[in-house]
Amino acid sequence: MLLIRCPYCEEERPELEFRNAGEAHIARSANMSGESDDDFEKFFFIRSNPKGIIYERWRHMHGCARFFNAVRDTVTDKFVMTYKAGEPKPAKLPGVAK
Amino acid sequence: MSGAFRIPRAGRLSQAKTARFSFDGQSYTGIEGDTLASALLANGVHLVGRSFKYHRPRGFLSAGAEEPNALVQIVRDDARKTPNVRATVQELYDGLAANSQNRWPSLSFDVGAVNDLASPMFSAGFYYKTFMWPKAAWKSLYEPKIREAAGLGVSPDKPDPDHYSSRYAHCDVLVLGGGAAGIAAALAAAETGVRVILADEQAEFGGSLRFETGARIDGQDGFAWAQAAIARLGAMDNVRVLSRTTAFGYYAQNFVGLVERVGDHLKAPGHDLPRERLWQVRAKRVVLASGAIERHMVFANNDRPGIMLAGAARTFLNHYGVAVGRNVGVYTANDSAYAAAIDLKKAGVNIAAIVDLRDNPTGPVIDEARALGIEINFGRAVIRAGGKLRVSSMTVQPKNGGGERTISVDAILMSAGWTPSVHLFSQSRGKVAFNDETKRFVPGTYAQDCVSVGACNGTDGLSASVDEAYAAGAKAARDSGAKSAKGVKPKVDASESWSRGMLGAAPGAGPDTTVKAFVDFQNDVTAKDIRQAVHEGMRSIEHVKRFTTNGMATDQGKTSNMHGLAIAAETLGKPIPEVGLTTFRAPYTPVTFGAIVSHARGPLFDPTRKTATHPWAEAQGAVFEDVGQWKRAWYFPKAGEDMHAAVDRECVAVRTTAGLFDASTLGKIEVVGPDAAKFMELLYTNPWEKLEPGRCRYGIMLREDGFIYDDGVVGRLAPDRFHVTTTTGGAPRVMNHMEDYLQTEFPHLNVWLTSITEQWAVIAVQGPKSRDIIAPLVEGIDMSDEALPHMSVREGKICGVPTRLFRMSFTGERGFEVNVPADYGQAVWEALWAEGQKHGATAYGTESMHVLRAEKGYIIVGQDTDGTVTPNDAGLDWAVGKKKSDFVGIRGMARPDLVAKGRKQLVGLKTKDPKVVLEEGAQIVEDPKQAIPMKMIGHVTSSYWSQNCGRSIALALVAGGRDRMGDTLYVPMPNGVIEVEVTGMVFFDETGGRLNG
Ligand SMILES: [Zn+2]
After folding, report:
1. Which one, B182, B302, B753, B901, has least CB within 10 Å?
2. What is the ipTM of this complex?
3. Domain boundary at B83, B117, B151, which?
């Protein structure tokens, strides 16, 4: 069972308290109804599914109930870092070679 | 005397404390402290089981958890019959009853042994080859027969009467394995004051010190040192010492599963004790001290009872005081078996001969054996064992061929060397590395914060192991935050040490032979099977493993992995590291379901949610149905009524007078804040800004893809306050969906969301008399149609308690939903019921609710929709705000496929024969005479008998359904084709006049 650091509770808590909520940093258009079919496809259907670093949304479901973002390595399952919803994609990751 | 093979003054058990036990109905006497294995061996019993595939007679291979053969059933009573217990691990208690497994009619005469003669049929991959064809025979014939024939043991057929417990624990340093290395590491860590847990699978700590008579530490016998050290550790506040505790799984971030056997060794465990306790430990650092497992020699008939690992024989002698034979042969490729021969010889057991594959080894143990007068044969191999139910001889030959010589024996001790136990390391996702010099896999690259010490790390010799472990324990403590250390490292005064050994098949079991030389005893895999797998094209060791079953199942290759790998590598002509080791899987040894499930069974398996009126409904004799976690009243049968009759009566009563229905399970969310209406605009398809406070609206929620996600009636209580209802099953996910958008997409909106599902009990009163029933109990609400029209909500009081009174209908009748604080739910229900009795009202359940709403064509999300249905498909276009520029799903709904012609649309169906009720889920076709597979154009989503309509009614999703009004379609069923007519969705009161009736 993984330990996940909730950036709101500022604590590492067991995985059971959390829910994954899919890939992060996919912006919903401010002009949704005007989106082209291609743009909507990219927004709704296309996900990166990388081997390695992935940016995800998680929710501290059975804790503070906040959604936040996490950087995880899909090979080792290790969480590199977590940060609050709305914060930009981190430019530099701790302990990860560029 | 507790057995003829008990050696006076040998071992550590007190002869005075005897324990009676039985095996296959025969009574024996053992000693307290024995395992079932040592007690049986003391009585000269070696034959304890039949093998998995060939039903060959089997005895004890080992003295520990690596035992592949001696699996027995322990019977405490009718419900407690534990199969596959390792006799080498099961501690003896007075009255223990054990049975052998996998034999019929008896252990010494087993009909299944014919498999041994028919063995060519059962060679590698036999499951895949023999039972391939015909396909249909697999389910009906092969699989049941294989399961019956191949099972190891029999499962108990009664519920488990024992209880289990589960604990979480956190520590700084977790030490797994309580031999000399583990104890040294635990001491080093514990002395710094950090929190330490030390666990060992055995009843007593000490590991190989149990048999290593040559070990001395801090001036004491090694085993005595271990007991003293454990006593010291156990007395420290920062240390938890767990014996009989197996680390079975190593998971992410130093999360380790341990199972502690609490009651299985006790005569009368008592119900205040759990049988087992699961420990889920999170450790800052883990020290792996899991030791090494001795390997057997791979030669013909090496599985005969009486043939065992040399270290096991030493354990039986030096710890339990039991000789495994009177005339013992030894077959070895390393020094450690000499120590066994020497110990037995000194205890008065005749050593018939030592057969050593090595050419001219030298060393102190060899000198000592020679000095004791034991015959030693170098450069020779045991090419076969004689005997059937018990070994009777060993046939010896120079290893490069030559004359044979047969020596009478009643036991053979064997040792091919020791395999480091890297199971837990491998489970931690660490990568092993092959040491070419010592021919073994040792921990290489670590994936977690752990360290291996002692024999499991490939460290030879007690002194080096203790040094390494002590240093590692101290470092683990420092790394987890310890400040100072003040301990003293244990000093090893004397130890045993031995060299390497061999891998693979021994001479006489080579590629040119067809003998049964077992590699994996538990899975009945021979050297020949491994070679055959390679010859048949298996190249990867993972494929060889699955094709032969070598190292699979509960055994996880403890004794067999390295031999199997070496034989595969030799056959492939590749070096061992290129072929690679298979992955070790958790659990290390089998774990009971009880330990994993713990108290989460029966009523505690899943929470049961009951509404406030549950006791009332129960008292009325309601039949309940499960809806998610809820228990809901399904129908209320009167004496002599079946479900059909009860539902007919309830449905008619609602439309004639009135019915009371508990709708409390509906999800309820309060959306509050200055931007509440803006938020509702974005989350629902409908417009909300202009909805006046005090009015309600039926809302549809979509996902971003444009499909219906949920629906429900929403009441606006105030400009900044909405009372939202959701489907019963949808409540949690709708809340999650709303929170997601509020927190991450629309965080600028000033809104709060609160789940109020459990705060309000909801009593639906529906029917022409509904207002007459409610009105006398209500205060402060004008109940007239002008003041409280259909689809409106008022706050006031009912029976003196606060209410949110909704005028709404899910039946098509004049209707109300009375929301009251849940604590008053039953009292208000009873008051309404009493009032209702004056008007002939009835209580109705979920079944009637379903029928009544279907009569009106009201959909149920999740039944009439399936996640691929748009509002238009469901005929709900009117509920989509046409002037809105954004809501969740607005763009998805406009996707080309979602606006294309021919989509499945919800319609009504009437069977041509009004008495025929369609089956929900039944498929619909245009032409019933077409060839199979037919083109299906839709399916039935809801179908009921409607007493109010006097006929059956159904809803269905049909391709282009709204263009087919009046058409005849067909529902092919096993008993014939049913003709149906496509109709609108409203079957009763099409004009809706009854809403105000
Ligand atoms: Zn949190």
Report:
1. B901
2. 0.97
3. B117
